[in-house]
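Quick check before the chapter quiz. The format below is the same one you will see on the exam, so make sure you can read both the input and the output lines.
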Amino acid sequence: MTPLRVRAKWRPSLGMIVVAVLLAVAALPLAGLFFFRLYENQLVRQTEAELIAQASVLAAAYADAVERLDPPPALSPTPLTSLAPEERFHPIEPALDLTSDDVLGARPAAVPATAAVDPALQAIGSKIYAIAQRAQDQMLAGVRVLDFNGTILAGAEEVGLSLADVPEVAGALAGQYHATLRVRRSQHEPPPLYSMSRGTGVRVFVALPVIAHTQNGDRVAGVIYASRTPNNIFRHLYGERRKVALAGGCILAVILIIAFVFSRTITRPIHQLVRQTRELGTRGLDEGPADAPHYGTREIALLSQSFHDMAQRLSDRSRYITTFAAHVSHELKSPLTGIQGAAELLHDDMDGEAAMDASQRRRFLGNILADTRRLTALVQRLRDLAQADNPVRGGRTSLAAVWPELAAQFPGLALTAGGEDAAVAMSAENVMILFGHLADNAGRHGATALDIAVAFRDWAVVVTVADNGHGISPANRDRVFDAFFTTRRDSGGTGMGLHIVQSLLRSHGGDIRLGDAPEGGGAVFEVTLPRA
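Here is the expected output.
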């Protein structure tokens, strides 16, 4: 039976699958945190941008009203640097960042003012605040209108008090836009989790200076101080629930893909391998394991290949043992039957039941001795075969050093060695056993000369052994390596020599085959040895 081969292709390793899945799982919460932080930061900047737009409109109305007053009111004593004509447009970009900006404490309380408020500016501040109040239902922003000293002109119960010491207001009084994040002050207990109504714990404050153009230059006429809590992320996500559902579907798809990858590359191949082992135990070793449709990772493919190879070896060994046991019992039965029959006849002669002369006794005793010698030869060959099936592997032997010893061991053969010198991965003892059996087999079949040629072939060393003996008939060519097959049974042949050679070679990763018969007669064997 041809052993099953797992198709070779690139497969991810089990370690790669595990690392990829772990990285994907670890990235999901990090990606979620990053998404929430990015989205929340975007909501803060959106809130700042809206406050800038609202404060800019109110500041423009404030400045226009101040510029229309006659006589002009007293403004900030320090003039501002005029902008160049090409810088007439100077948009204010939102710059607050939850990840880098500090969140300050709640806004400090207003303190008593140190300077009197101009009645004209007070009237303008009240009008501006009235406009802000009318838009507050849509703007959702708290607005304070301040004069150039930081005193609140209009804004709930804090009118007449000063916010000049608040950092962002102080920056605006100097003519620069300022924004900051502060802890949100609430009359209610903070919820344990973000809620749909008040989940954000910060409040955005912007202070925009009111710049009035006067005959004495640009001066700060006041400050629009606005604040608002950013939109709640969960409430905003609810408004974008379709997109959130799409994102959740994508995450679920990723999870399903991970589960599919695990199932296809790890779980299912392992279950298939378990099923194959059970089927092999149920069907027996003779049929071998069935092929699997998918092997998943590289490790499981290698494991499956090792399992198939092991099952194939076990199947081959099972058939070999069954056949070998039948051959051994058959080979041992003939001499044992002969010994038993001769012994029974001699036993009967001693009891006087049959008259047997000396020549007959000598013949029966000779049969017993001959069968005993055959049994001894068979036992020795069986021991040699056991050693050949399980040899001590390894070693390194130069073939050039073996040929003189082989020639000395078989002086009746004229040995000729040619070709290249080669080193093989076998011990010198096993190499001598191998070629000793071939030389002995040639000598017993009438050979007087042995021609040896050495050549290289890829990873192996090929040794061609040719003799000039009787040769092998075409009918016996397919059986010469079978155990106990011999044409010299009458002269003591056991039929184990070539089988021992084949077993010894295969146990070392080599092989032997019968070559084409030469025209002048004899036999040719091609021996493949592992190259050192």
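If your answer matched, good. The CA atoms of residues 143 and 359 lie 142 Å apart.
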